[in-house]
Specification:
The protein is an alpha+beta fold. It is 24% helix and 36% strand. Strand 4 (84-94) and strand 5 (99-107) form a beta hairpin.
Length: 169
């Protein structure tokens, strides 16, 4: 059985289009941290993605996670309030094409509606632009959080492609 899903591809080609969000949560920090711990990364992926049909990595062994995380292209950031992880993002810096692709981005449910998502995405875009890419891009779909597309657009990203796809349920 399959489900029809609308997929959106978004990009930002000029840093001047970037519209950062603010978040007033005390003690919120975002660190380039977690990449050395495949179990932790797998946990973040599974727990944050469980409501959004994130399935492509569910069958990965810890060795496969480690191999992926060892890529020099991959950057991995975790958001914390105190010592508690609240979300993460990862991106691939494609130096050969001068593009940065935000591959995964998400926050835990108990932080929805608290502006953490906008702030975390702002951090991701700001960090991505430090590589001086021609563009930063991401894709999302109707299975992701209902505010995901709005968040990307609010930060200054533009839809450059749409497609309807069928995914197994």
């Amino acid at each position: 059985m399959t489900q029809r899903v609308q997929r959106y591809f978004l990009e930002m080609k000029n840093k001047k289009d970037f519209n950062p969000a603010v978040c007033g949560i005390f003690n919120l920090k975002i660190l380039e941290q977690g990449k050395k711990d495949p179990q932790f990364c797998k946990f973040l992926y599974q727990k944050i993605g469980e409501d959004f049909h994130w399935k492509d990595r569910l069958g990965w062994s810890l060795e496969e996670w480690k191999n992926y995380l060892d890529s020099k292209k991959l950057k991995f950031y975790t958001a914390y309030i105190g010592e508690e992880p609240v979300g993460y993002y990862e991106y691939l810096n494609h130096e050969d094409t001068k593009e940065v692709e935000i591959t995964y981005f998400g926050i835990f449910k108990n932080y929805y509606g608290k502006k953490v998502g906008g702030y975390l995405l702002s951090h991701a875009l700001e960090t991505a632009w430090k590589h001086s890419p021609k563009r930063v891009w991401v894709h999302t779909c109707t299975l992701d959080h209902p505010n995901a597309l709005r968040n990307y657009i609010a930060r200054g990203m533009n839809i450059f492609k749409k497609e309807a796809v069928s995914v197994p349920v």
